[in-house]
Design brief:
Immunoglobulin-like; 2 domains; 14 helices; seven-stranded parallel beta sheet; globular
Length: about 450
């Protein structure tokens, strides 16, 4: 259909099957902040309400917020920076270092890794809040000269990702740009009013979004921290959908803004294809498509102070993925490369572990939809998740079975159904014990983060 730049028309866009089916994507935060690669440890994003605004922003766990945290007097980042680089060393001085390291980067290696991890799409941060551009834009930063990557990261990675059959998406910090606003964010109030609202900045952002759409053909527009009030979002969305009807748009385009010293809320769209909870998930099946995003540790950008104990394992993420998918979500898992493009070994291990599990069990993930309920339990209080596809029910056991049988409470399946354990050739014996389903576990069971049982009705 042809979309008009109106709310009524835009709302007719439906989430395409590819995004519903994909389930797993890779997020990439890489830029100048990858050079110092530092953030205070000990906090997580979800703890911010408990510890207080001032303490949280001063001890921000996100390494990609290095420039902002550096501007907060007495912050651990400021202390680290002055000790490591000296007070006269500015954030801009990381540009030549990053661009020199960038010569080592191999985008094909990234694409190969993401493919092996089982990802179906990739979202690259093209401009974070520090304003540094990762592509050869016709619209350079007017506040800083040569504030741009020496290689066209967007083009090179897009070509590599698409060559592996994955979809490509772009994150862009639409409201925040700390080259235009140098006031540090040290609390929620300043967080609310830090966005740029000038006509000049609006034009700058508009040019970038249209350039990314026209020159690189993304499947995902991933905005962050709102958008300038003067930016015509319906015009942008209609333009994108008319070029790429199978494209999707996230929910981070609306924001609280400030004007004449007053804070006011401007909600202008009430439209998005999917929501993006950060470092959290929903606990029920959501009718609206959603995507949980997070780092492997507590930071998106590479934080060299994070060690193995600060990262979740592939086992953790496999269980997280299953839970998210059972509730109509996708998982967008972030990698934070080093400045030379090296993805830390611990992060690679996590991705490959997920990929190995998906190679055997992906049938119960990709292309599925939520069943009539997401969760279940066994008699032994083990956790169950359900997914559904083409009349097939997939039962995901999140724990190791206890004993030779598994009794799943309040689950009735059609008579004469066949049950297979993914990765095994033989059918499983089973019986219906009133309203409970009893499965007989194979003796040669190989340990797995999640076991997936496929219920095949007799008519199939």
């Amino acid at each position: 259909m042809n979309f008009e730049p109106t709310k009524t028309s835009i709302r007719k866009h439906e989430v395409p099957d590819w995004f519903q089916d994909a389930k797993f994507g890779i997020f990439i935060h890489w830029g100048l902040y990858s050079v110092p690669a530092f953030a205070a440890k000990g906090l997580s994003f979800t703890e911010s309400p408990e510890v207080g605004e001032e303490y949280y922003f001063k001890s921000n766990p996100y390494a990609e917020w290095y420039l902002n945290t550096l501007r907060i007097s007495g912050s651990p980042t400021q202390e680290y920076h002055n000790k490591e680089y000296g007070e006269d060393f500015s954030y801009d001085d990381f540009v030549p270092i990053f661009n020199e390291e960038l010569e080592m980067w191999n985008p094909q290696e990234w694409a190969e890794l993401f493919k092996n991890a089982g990802a179906k799409y990739v979202v690259l941060v093209t401009k974070h809040h520090d304003g540094f551009l990762l592509w050869s834009s016709k619209y350079p930063n007017p506040m800083k000269e040569n504030y741009i990557s020496s290689r066209n990261i967007v083009r090179e990675l897009t070509n590599s990702v698409k060559s592996k059959g994955m979809k490509m998406g772009f994150y862009y910090s639409t409201s925040f740009d700390w080259t235009f606003n140098q006031e540090p964010i040290d609390g929620r109030t300043s967080d609310m009013i830090n966005g740029i609202i000038t006509p000049e900045y609006t034009e700058y952002v508009k040019n970038h979004w249209y350039e990314l759409i026209d020159d690189y053909e993304p499947s995902i527009l991933w905005s962050d921290i709102g958008a300038p009030p003067l930016l015509d979002l319906f015009e942008l969305f209609a333009y994108f959908y008319n070029k790429y009807p199978d494209g999707v748009i996230n929910d981070r385009w609306d924001k609280i803004f400030h004007k004449d010293g007053k804070v006011y809320k401007m909600r202008r769209t009430f439209f998005y294809d999917y929501t993006t909870p950060e470092y959290k998930s929903y606990n029920i099946i959501k009718k609206k498509k959603w995507e949980s995003n997070r780092g492997i540790g507590n930071s998106y950008g590479y934080n060299k102070t994070e060690k193995e104990g600060d990262y979740l394992t592939s086992k953790d993420f496999i269980r997280m993925l299953v839970d998210i998918v059972s509730k109509n979500g996708n998982l967008l898992l972030n990698v934070g490369p080093m400045p030379d493009g090296t993805i830390p070994e611990l992060q690679k291990e996590v991705l490959l572990g997920i990929g190995q599990w998906l190679e055997i069990n992906g049938e119960g993930i990709y292309g599925t939809r939520p069943w009539e309920r997401a969760e279940g339990n066994t008699l032994d209080k083990l956790e169950i998740r359900f997914t559904y596809k083409n009349e097939l029910l997939y039962i995901h056991l999140l724990n190791n079975p206890i004993g030779k049988t598994l009794k799943i409470l309040t689950l009735t399946i059609p008579k004469n159904s066949k049950i297979m354990l993914l990765g095994y050739d033989n059918q499983l014996k089973w019986e219906q014990d009133q309203e409970d389903l009893v499965l007989y576990i194979p003796e040669n069971l190989t340990e797995s983060p999640v076991y997936v049982f496929k219920v095949i009705p007799n008519e199939l």
